Amino acid sequence: MSQVTLFSVDGFTATEIAGVDEAGRGCLAGPVVAGACILPAEYDLPGMTDSKQLTAAKREVLYDLIREQAVAWAVGVAWAPEIDDINILQATFQAMGRAVRGMKAEPKFLQIDGNKTIPPYALQCDIPQEYVIKGDGKIPAISAASIMAKTFRDRLMVQLAKRYPGYGISKHMGYGTKDHMAAIQKFGPCRQHRLTFRGVKPEPKIQEQASLF
């Protein structure tokens, strides 16, 4: 078993603290997904770190282990229409709030990956929190949340690829790859595309000025 030394943040122990992270914020298609996770005092999650540093196969293994061992975990989702309606930052906050509220155990403190905390209107509860820059590689609970969000989203995108063929969604997971951009140009956006994102929304046409001569 991996031994975790109990620590405190503003008086809260590790088992009272939830890590929170997101996946898919920079994509052109699909939802933004947030993960929230409270880890126990002892766990066996070998190799856990920032999800971006892990292979898909390793994330899959850790995803199942985290669900088995965590004190509590949940994911929150904000779909493309909501992203277009309120913008990606606000949709990310909403997904994070949904993840936190979805856990079976209520955390007493939150550690958020990045440089922003979750606004009260998205969290809908009064929990002290702090942001941690690059926290997904520093704090185990945030690493776990990162893996939860990334793996859940990847599994979802594989299913969406079957519903929306032709875009190669299961390969690029909605990111703006060359092949993905070419598919958008060929077929136009589908219901999973973020219509307000550059690369999806039509480029404005530049009207030629009438010649004075």
Automatic annotation (TrEMBL):
Domain RNase H type-2: 15-209
Top EC class, one word: hydrolase
Gene3D superfamilies associated with the record: Ribonuclease H-like superfamily/Ribonuclease H (3.30.420.10)
Cofactor or coenzyme needed: Mg(2+); Mn(2+)
E.C. number: 3.1.26.4
PANTHER family per the UniProt record, alphabetical: RIBONUCLEASE H2 SUBUNIT A, RIBONUCLEASE HII
The protein's name in its UniProt record: Ribonuclease HII
Native source species: Pseudodesulfovibrio nedwellii
Protein encoded by which gene: rnhB
